[in-house]
């Protein structure tokens, strides 16, 4: 007898895919069969923690919890006792300006920081972040902040102020994931929200929580999905090597970068025009990290240690294309520029990320560039429904009822308020899982795996 269970395939085991799978299994119970197909060989996607030997663990991708209230990863870290939630823990790790500065540069940096952190206000002047709010009509973040920076009388402070702005511009690129701040749509700042609470790192590493979220799920590694065929009856997913799986629906969580490169060949029939234009309009930035492991030098105070450099935009693209020797020469150049740092002169080796060139990601995180609209994120998130319900009547959808969605989309780029973040990815996976549960009329109320956080 054929199984009456609804079958769902999830493409990708990043935080969006894990959240979708946990929600389906946790809230759909044994009325669903849920399979996660992951092209790589680990869970976590762009949240990737690696060991750096004696230097401990390093975050190759996501690093910060952007706010902690209702953050699903923070809540899991507390439950798992990776963190204790104390004020001391929060206060000791927050980011700030002063730790970076040269003598005399603090005021310039703080001025630049305050402006760059300003929130966009709608064009009619409402909302936003107070006196320095960015009007949505400003166009790009770069234009607005540069103009305000010039008004700050920082020019009188000379080179330090100019260096401060150059540094702040690079930091802004890393925060927004944009290629340049001139390409960052000011209106999208009004859409982006942080969770309440401080920005703090996760001492256990994002990977550990991802592995916890993956427990009990049917995740198949090394399964790169090449084709998704869908119609009113269901979906057929083909993986590299030719194996095919059939299901009632698929939740696609691959990055916007992967969709840009592959959607035209991946989906049959092709995605509707509004979805294809949203994929084209939204952008994927390139943010990379270089980890510099210094070997132990002679003397008791000089154990092995590690430094990290962030590199963004066109510089990151160039770094990814460079040879190892060229990268080491570049790092040496930076070290030589700071002779007062005692690390100069010590042997080192470099490990680097290549999020832009990696075919499983094709970028670091999404943003809304000049020319795109926040509504493009909604279009990206919209499910694809194919044709009328094939089996109206008992056991199927009632005659005349809307056909169930067949191809659903989650992932950080589909979250209009929390795009570019791990919690945005998580909430988007939860959102699509619940959309599917509602469409299938499946809601057991069972919470086999506790579902954490809310959208
Ligand atoms: C350098 C860097 C720093 C960051 N810093 C932060 C931060 O501090 N805080 C924060 O909240 N966020 C940060 N982010 C962003 C955050 O990591 C992402 O927003 C989030 O992890 C995205 O999750 P996702 O599930 O949407 O996508 P992904 O993590 O990209 O997951 C998609 C999965 O799909 C798989 N896949 C791709 N193609 C296929 C295919 N054809 N078939 C099967 N599987 C496929 C991939 O291998 C991947 O595992 C950072 C990202 C980077 C790169």
TrEMBL record:
<keyword id="KW-0274">FAD</keyword>
<keyword id="KW-0963">Cytoplasm</keyword>
<dbReference type="InterPro" id="IPR036188">
    <property type="entry name" value="FAD/NAD-bd_sf"/>
</dbReference>
<feature type="domain" description="Amine oxidase">
    <location>
        <begin position="16"/>
        <end position="76"/>
    </location>
</feature>
<dbReference type="InterPro" id="IPR050281">
    <property type="entry name" value="Flavin_monoamine_oxidase"/>
</dbReference>
<dbReference type="GO" id="GO:0005737">
    <property type="term" value="C:cytoplasm"/>
</dbReference>
<keyword id="KW-0560">Oxidoreductase</keyword>
<comment type="similarity">
    <text>Belongs to the flavin monoamine oxidase family.</text>
</comment>
<dbReference type="GO" id="GO:0046592">
    <property type="term" value="F:polyamine oxidase activity"/>
</dbReference>
<dbReference type="InterPro" id="IPR002937">
    <property type="entry name" value="Amino_oxidase"/>
</dbReference>
<protein>
    <recommendedName>
        <fullName>Amine oxidase domain-containing protein</fullName>
    </recommendedName>
</protein>
<feature type="domain" description="Amine oxidase">
    <location>
        <begin position="203"/>
        <end position="437"/>
    </location>
</feature>
<keyword id="KW-0285">Flavoprotein</keyword>
<dbReference type="Pfam" id="PF01593">
    <property type="entry name" value="Amino_oxidase"/>
</dbReference>
